[in-house]
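Before anything else, study the sequence and fold tokens given here and see whether the fold suits the sequence. Record follows:
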Amino acid sequence: MKDIFNYEELLNEFCKKHNLSFKNKSLLKTAFTHSSYSYENYINESNERLEFLGDSVLENVVRTYLYNNDETSTEGDMTKLKENYVDKNANYNYAILLEINKYILVGNGVNPNNHSILGDAFEALIGAIYLDSGFDYVFNFLVNKLLPYASNNEYSYKNELQEKYPQSPIEYILVKESGFDHDKTFYVDIYINDVKIGSGSGKRKKDAEQNAAKDALQKNTHVIQNQKTLYEKDNDKTSRTSIFDKANLIDNSKQELNFMIYDKEIEYKLINEEGLDHNKTFYVDVYVDNKKMGSGSGKRRILAERKAARDAINNITNKQKVQNISRDMFDSLFNTNEEVNYYYKNWLQEKFPQKYIEYRVLKEYGPDHNKTFEINVYIDGELMGSGSGKRKKEAEQNVAKEALENLKY
């Protein structure tokens, strides 16, 4: 929390640290005043107008700098170079170099380290310097203080994407390479939770990944037709959402199949792979207690498994409808008479989705055809339950059940 009563001293500290001289200090304060702070404190001004001005000033400075810096650069070369100096990621890095986060005024609950807020504050600062001291002054400040760092700017769209979705697994998949070894082009697709959200290419794999992340972030502003969730019954209804929301509505067919037949042994068998390494198609069959119940294919094995699970669910559901099978008769589909055992493992994981749950076999005894397994379950390293069973899977279910009882679920 900034000490607003000593804020003038903080602004003097900022100017001294960065060799800046302001004739009108109120411009600097406005540059560092976010709209959330203005709203909470009934202040008429925020840094939004200065940000608008600073954006244009910054671009003009960079264009002049690039034009004077290398007389051999073509218009195309300078356009490409400009992207290293003028974008929201570069602005964020400039703000970090100047430690603007220590001086910016924001409302309660607003993160002063937010990338967008800091980048906007930097542009507002440039606008304030321009109004206070003119173009030549702001040009020298940027060229001497900040622009030399931009060409080494390692902050990327990948970082921004990961920050936007810290809990989501983000995968960059190289789908193609073209050209000779000395002049290759790489093509990358990006996935969140197995949903493709962007594509990019570049002369380096790293550049292709950055461009794919940039593509994904840009698509977040578009509205697209969304997938149905597993539990929507009205197939005629559709929703519209961002591509990231679509990625979060992943197909949980495998988990749904587990819940549907919680007492069965489910196995996914890879039947075949076709195509080159960067463009394979996987074919998977799913077996329930050694009986084939579904098939699926996909560009990734996990997608093929999910399609196989969905196929199995449809097949099982259709059999139930046609034969009017009750739950008591359900086992006959799989030729098994095993006692029903509730899927406590799934329940436990559902209760603690962010925790690391580990099942450790302590002991197994008895002949191979009649073994007994003793197992402990740990949640983030803490012992939460013990159990045993004639099969390892059964023991794990029993120990998960005990953990839930101990935790009063």
Remarks:
- Residues 221-241, 246-250, 321-329, 335-342 have pLDDT under 50 and may be disordered.
- The domain at 344-406 is CATH 3.30.160.20 (Double Stranded RNA Binding Domain).
- DSSP finds 16 helices and eleven strands in the chain.
- The chain has four domains: 4-150, 166-225, 251-333, 344-406.
